[in-house]
Known about the structure:
The chain is mainly α. The chain contains eleven helices and no strands. It has helices spanning 22-39, 49-72, 86-90, 92-102, 105-112, 116-119, 126-158, 166-195, 201-225, 243-247, 260-284. Helix 8 packs across helix 11. The N and C termini lie far apart (52 Å).
Amino acid sequence: MADNGAQILDRGYRRYEGSRSGTVGAVRSVAWHTTRSILGLGRKARHKIFPVIVVVIAFIPAIVFLGLTVLIGDLLEDELQPEYWELFGFSNVAIVLFATLVAPEAIVRDRRDGMLSLYLSTPLTRSTYVAAKVIATLGTMSIITIGPPILALLGYTFQSQGPGGVLEWFEVLAKLVVSGLLIVAVLTAVSLGASSLTDRRAFASVAVIMIMIGSLTVTAVLINVAGGSQSLGALSPFSAFEVAPRMFGDRSEDAEEVETWLVVAATFGWIAAGSSVLWWKYRRLGAV
């Protein structure tokens, strides 16, 4: 009679002999998978719609100006060719869309799906888990924030309309990167700080919109209706976009009367406020 029964093979206990990357590897892995989740990679097509739209909107102005430079560069007047820092302003709609509609996915999905307890069973702590999420959000948002100005810098350079020398070129690059990182840091802090208060992306997006648009509306009323000082514009996270012109020794038209020290203080103030809310919420949040 044939033996159709199951067989039990005693293989014994085997130690894991692969490489152990520890906490650094865990942070790197979570940051990478979070980046994929934010961009909709490896997910259904509907999850890629917003990221693709945002990226296209962000890069269109830089591509248009580069196209004009290539086709009719010699005919363009200096007034029609934007300063490098002005490209941040052309992409601000895309940056805000990302912060409100895309970035909250970095943290709300784990809480919605109950994955936080699983992450905390690894070498990750609450601090390193949050750090991984911040790294992923900063990295993806930097693509649409810093990418267009750098693309324009490279394009102008190849068309012999960029900075005059090597040192000047790297100086412009450094100013663009630092300005972009500060803008990204503010919006990341606001987005993740507001998103940490809920486990629903729709609610998180509404919270971010209320902070961004609400503060902008309040400051506009105080300045334009109540006759307040332009310095009140620092009450809005949008004040971070003023960092770029100040880096290049210039001032935007809407903030000519605002002192540079106030712009810097407001920028770091928003970063501190958003980061504090995020840390406070995850310090109190239960793992289960």
